Amino acid sequence: MNLLTGILALITSPLGPPITLLIGAVLVWTIGRVLHRPQWQSAVALTSWLLAIWLTVLLRLEPVVPIFSRPWQPFVMGASQLLWVSDGWNWYVSVLLLLLGGVAILLSGFGGQYVDRPSYQDRRRATLTLSAHLGVLATALLFVGSGNILTVTLTWVLMDILVLARNAIAPQTRQDENGHNPSWL
Fold first, then answer.
1. pTM of this structure
2. N or C: which terminus of the chain has fewer CB atoms within 10 Å of its end residue's CB?
């Protein structure tokens, strides 16, 4: 019962939405590796995104400002706290990030990324890209909810690593007859 209470407290904290997005990223990657079903991957990504939005709205309805804090004790420095806060500003930016991230998930999951007969490499790259979108969105939410400079720095580094990984695995764009990459945005 104590473990269940701890998990519930973690999900209802400012770490809840990023955790659901990270779980969704792992599930999308697993479905892509094992089942090779693009529709299921997109459905899992969309479900984890909707769950993250729902948890974010529930954070705003809390009567007190939700926080999550853990001590951090490195070997060579003094102790500090890893702190995440879900106040008004953080909530507003989190909702904007979730909306923009939802557009990216919809475009990468349900968009024209899947051709009639995609190769194995195309399917694998699409799976990794969709998982990376969810991971970057989760780290962006962690970054926005940071409550002190230590947490900002750690989440910023983590977010940069995932952005670099996402850019490294992003699907190659097709070139038109003039050799230009068409842009729809």
1. 0.84
2. C
